[in-house]
Design brief:
The protein is an alpha+beta fold. The protein has helices at about 40-60, 90-95, 100-115, 125-135, 140-155, 190-205, 205-215, 220-235, 240-265, 270-280, and strands at about 5, 10-15, 20-25, 30-35, 65-70, 75-80, 85, 160, 170-175, 180, 185-190.
């Protein structure tokens, strides 16, 4: 990986731990370093950094990307430090009365992303990403690969931005600005690619994962979607909202297949439960 600068962790203090990376604040109080686990390839860090540069250049609110870094064994990037800052999920977990106003604010911010033209020369098309990973899914039955590709052929083209991992844990605020984070999967396409996983994680997540990822309980996540959807879709009609949710079903199955393959680098084995879930959301 080119243009990587070596840092000394003596200049930083660890401040956070996620599933794939650790974060460190520089002692000067101006920057944050994100270093992926040593098992994660340097190319992944570079891809996330390049995506963050595109998002920043487009003008969407995100911490300024500064440089690619390594501590000698791990790779990552350094960003503008936003301080003080809290994620929307952290605020909701600490101040439950903020659930509705923050969910509604999040809906407005999500619509802004989905109305922003993408730099299609620097970002991937989500349809192409999904299709390429499904092709790499070695143990996915051929009939399922065909079903996914038939669906992908029906998805209209669009050149507007997608966050790629849209949820209220991936937006932070310093009290004045709301900023998007974890933009490594930023892409372009129809907004259903973002909304499908937001709906799925809001309504089908286990209590353990809801606490681990969002610091919230499943009923709170369901209430979050209930507050989000009318503002995002611009309607209070139960029938219209249910129709919008039904549109998300095949996207849910396809996006999960794509993510399972990506996380296993194509070597995962789809369980019976996973195939049953696919059938639930994308029947023949």
């Amino acid at each position: 990986m080119q243009d990587v600068e070596r840092i000394s962790l003596d200049d930083y203090v660890q401040t956070g731990e996620g599933g794939t990376a650790l974060t460190y604040n520089h002692k000067d109080g101006k920057t944050l370093a994100k270093l992926f686990m040593s098992s994660i390839a340097a190319d992944n860090a570079a891809r996330e950094f390049r995506a963050s540069q595109v998002v920043y250049d487009i003008g969407l609110p995100t911490p300024k990307p500064i440089r690619l870094i390594t501590d000698g064994t791990r790779f990552g990037a350094e960003y503008e430090l936003i301080s003080p800052k809290r994620s929307f999920t952290r605020i909701i977990s600490q101040e439950p009365d903020q659930l509705v106003p923050l969910s509604e604010r999040f809906a407005v911010l999500a619509r802004q992303i989905h109305q922003t033209p993408a730099d299609t020369g620097r970002l991937p098309d989500m349809r192409d990403l999904a299709g390429s990973w499904i092709d790499k899914f070695e143990l996915l039955p051929d009939d399922w690969k065909e079903r996914f590709h038939r669906f992908l052929d029906t998805v209209p083209s669009a050149s507007t931005c997608l966050h790629g991992d849209l949820h209220i844990g991936n937006i932070i605020t310093d009290g004045k600005r709301d900023l998007w984070i974890d933009v490594g999967d930023f892409a372009y396409g129809v907004p259903e690619w973002d909304l499908c996983m937001l709906y799925y994680t809001s309504n089908f997540m286990s209590a353990e994962r809801a606490d681990s990822i969002f610091h919230l309980e499943p009923p709170t996540l369901k209430a979050h979607w209930k507050a989000f959807a009318p503002v995002y879709y611009g309607t209070d009609s139960k029938e219209q909202l249910e129709a919008e949710v039904r549109k998300l079903y095949p996207f849910i199955a396809t996006k999960i297949a794509f993510l399972v393959c990506k996380l296993s680098n194509g070597k995962g084995t789809p369980s019976e439960a996973l195939l049953k879930m696919f059938d639930q959301f994308m029947p023949k």
